[in-house]
Amino acid sequence: MADDKYSQRVRGKMASTGRSKKADRMRKMNSKETLRGEDHDYGAVFVEGPISVNATDLEVGENVELGSSKPWFQGRRVVELDVLARSMNCEKCSSWLRLSDIKDEVIYGMASFLYISCRSSACQHISLVPTGKKSNGKGFDINYKVCLAMINAGMGPSHVNNFLTGCNIPPVDASTLRKKQKELAPVIIEAAEASCKEAQREELECSECSELEGSFDAGWQKRGSGWSYNSHTGHASLIGINTGKVVEFDVRTRNCSICQYYIGKNEPKPPHECNVNWTGSSKGMEPDMACSMIQRLAEDGYTVGTLHADNDATTQSRLPRSIIKKR
Predict the structure, then answer these.
(1) Which InterPro entries does this entry report, sorted A to Z (predicted)?
(2) Which of the listed CATH numbers 3.30.420, 1.20.140, 1.10.260, 1.10.357 matches domain 207-326?
(3) Is residue 257 within a helix (H) or strand (E), and if so which, with residue range?
């Protein structure tokens, strides 16, 4: 039989009664809800008791408990004023709603739904008011805009949340940004390909002959030491000499996180969109992308006559002999 002196557990380990009591006191002190007036107040505050409301925007007939989330009046929000102004009427009696009557808030990334109570004594209905618009019916536009801005700025979810936290704006969950990024990827690729098609036509119109002249180079997401190139991804672009626009691009990937996860667990891989399109070395990506871009241009009716590139012997040897190589 265990000694009563060590009959308590703290963080999963046996601890003395004195240490257990001390841990209980610290938990109670940390869980006290206090109201602070600082600008950046991330502590807990007193909230109202749960209010049951029928949330028609979530699921029909689903009851949602309000008052259990963080207080709505903490921090700052990104609000579309036009959307908010058109939604500030009671869903039941059409009376004007006031922001001071907000009961709770449910945050969806950078946007949120406000639960506002009607002031009419005969109504007192709680309306669901969005802070932004939803164009496609799937998600708030602001969340897609944040994802596009993240990609355009070359940042990641942690950088975005560091910026938002510094502005005292509730951060966006990294999984939300990754989900939006996957939804936007096909659209971005389609827009990039259309832009390249237009640039090809402009470049040929500006050319003095019937052949294109461009500058080619490749890059990797991981720096090479000169002796070791082990980046999992690589990219390349071909820029027209006359217009300065990208006329063709390509990407190589030899790693898939989903495949690696199930391989590590020795489990069969589920059906998914695998991005792996290269199995060779990282250094071998550059000549392969150069040949692929020139071949696609040829299929579209464009011939590359002169190519400006760096001193890479492998790429030069793989290119067609008809192309004039310049360094």
Answers:
(1) Mutator_transp_dom (IPR049012)
(2) 3.30.420
(3) helix 257-264
